[in-house]
Amino acid sequence: MLLxxxxxxxxxxxxxxxxxxxxxxEGGSPLEALGRLLSLRGPARTVIVFEPRGxxxxxxxxxxxxxxxxxxxxxxxxxHPAVCSDxxxxxxxxxxxxxxxxxxTLLHCEMAPGLRGLCEIAARSGNSVQAAxxxxxxxxxxxxxxxxxxxxxxxxxxxxxxAVASLVPGRRTFRAWTEPMQERDxxxxxxxxxxxxxxxxxxxxAEGSRAGxxxxxxxQKPGSLCPQWKRIEETGRVGTVYGLADLAERASWxxxxxxxxxxxxxxxxFSLDRQLVGAMAAGVIGTAVLAGWTVKARNRSHAELVGVExxxxxxxxxxxxxxxxxxxxxxxxxxxxxxxxxxxxxxAAALRRLAAAVPDSVTLESLNVGPDRAFQIEADTxxxxxxxxxxxxxLSSAGFVPRDPEGWCYRAADNKLTVNGVITxxxx
Length: 428
Description:
Low-confidence stretches: 200-210, 270-274
Mean pLDDT: 82
Number of domains: 4
Distance between the termini: 41 Å
């Protein structure tokens, strides 16, 4: 993790911080320190939480479009040049509806190059950075699957890094302090959290929670990091206090295709096998032959030449797509290596049962399965035909049994369903 000026890594005794002073003694920056850590890992597929100094988090009104279409909008490209740059990492939260009838998103982007160089440093040692998540996105993932009431804000209290995030749909914001905080900074933080005074004598914890709960990530006791912690606690709004380990675990579950992935804008380095190299060589030879043929056939129509060139481009695109599939299969084989042949067959049977069990009212968006058979399902639902208990029974019958009570989370506000549990070896 890179949080402000501190680089955090997990060691045998817990999370360790590489401070700015230690970086200066080694003659480097936080990015270089993180690059050294990634290089020491050797060949690996890595996910990082990336929140350096100078990151921008801007609420933007937008149509409900994909990340690719978002980056092509003329207004976005004019007002936010980072989306046009090949040297700055950026991402967006999924657009969501607001009261005015439009959609809003939160644009995360670097203000100065850093992430691309970090990925290149890691790649030289065989370490592939698959995803780089803003702190906001990791926090959103952390609270999204919990059965407890959803908080309206998230407070980060980590040595050298303090931040507050609004999780209210349509009014999402993020603000971080990476330098030593003064009294006015702590007062600003209270203002963002809407902490204005002590609760009334008859106001209980539950009532305070309805006003907007506050989830917390703290690496030490919150009171030792925040001089205003007592005032925040007295509001009765403080919910679960997580650690960096919780944040890192949830970030590792996020699909790399999530639109907030800051790393997605940079090209991946490929290690092609012999078959693909041969196919690409054949493509190059074919291109040369076609070029010679074009010289001899100048009388052919321009439309035919454009068609041939377009086909060559499609073939080259298919080669890259095949390599991506090969890399994904290698990753899956690596992750399933310890399961054994029989366990892989059981998992394949479970997936077939799931495919047969999912009703028309549920559309799967993602499915993650860990080596210990733990799974997470993200799905979109049709509210006109969605029956939670029926769907829960169908999934359980297929062997995908939700953990109780927190394994089943249906959000009627956006018709999203999240299911966590462990795949049973045999369907009930």
